[in-house]
Design goal:
22% helix; 336 residues; alpha/beta; elongated; five-stranded parallel sheet; Spore Coat Polysaccharide Biosynthesis Protein SpsA, Chain A; UDP N-Acetylglucosamine Acyltransferase, domain 1; seven-stranded mixed sheet; 2 domains; 24 strands
Amino acid sequence: MTSPQLSIIILAAGKGTRMKSEKAKVLHEVFYAPMVHYVLNAVIPLKPEQTVAIVGHQQSAVKQVLKKFEVDFAVQDQQLGTGHAVLIAENIVKEDTDTVMILCGDTPLIRSDTLVRMYRAHKERKATLTLMTTFLADPTNYGRILSIGGKVRGIVEQKDADPEQLLINEINAGIYCVDKEFLFSALKMVGTDNSQNEVYLTDIVRLAVESNFPVEKVTTIDPLEVLGVNSRLELAEAHRELQLRRNRELMMQGVSMYGPETISISPESTIGKDTLLEACVRISDGSTIGESCTVGQGTILINCRIGNNVQIGPYSYLSDITVDSLSTLAAYSRNC
């Protein structure tokens, strides 16, 4: 799928006050990488013409962790809202772009397939604006979707909602596909008449509806996928989900696990089929484990090359080592 007229904007300027940290929110690591890496990797299958990251708080550090990606940067020096952040990118988004997809850099669980589905729906329905929604049993802190007859009429933020609106459990997932010309012209019309005195990106939905432009929604049935990481609790939840996704993938490829919820295998490490990983194993830094091995409980492997039919005893700690096929290592083995 090639999308030469699609540009991506990723919002990565926030401080993340609820994280209780001096570190910019998107720099916090989740399952072996800064959370913003997962968002950038998720958009790659869309093959956009351009990706723009909006940076602000600790912008030098954010730019540094994004240096391996092909990204243009726009700087939001003052935190004046999500709408203001997107508007800053107007002069950076390429002229021939016709659609802009906007995501937050704190949603590491978003799947590429979901973004592809959203973009296709946006184009097929000839929408001016498409937003992603989901349903939550407890929608606290999320913007509510205002609908009439199944059609989107607007979004109301938690702090601006009345008691009846607070009962709505369909929420804004914070991902948008928008016609470029409408996006930037609408943002210039958005004011700051709200409880936060900020330029809300969500106000463009109301402006599109008032102008009778087609507004569509794409709903994801998995609320975790659009989880915004705003606290250490949500960071831990995102880490656990990514860990389990990775382990499900490995088990589908023929790897056995005792207690997969306790096992952590970094994304760049590889495990051969018919290998058994016992509980509380941690394998990282591009380690390669051959076929038909057993890795005992509590073992840690860092940047290791393990051959086929290797038996590693429980609670071993191995780093930067090659182990030949058919080897047997006793429990509590160490090479450092």
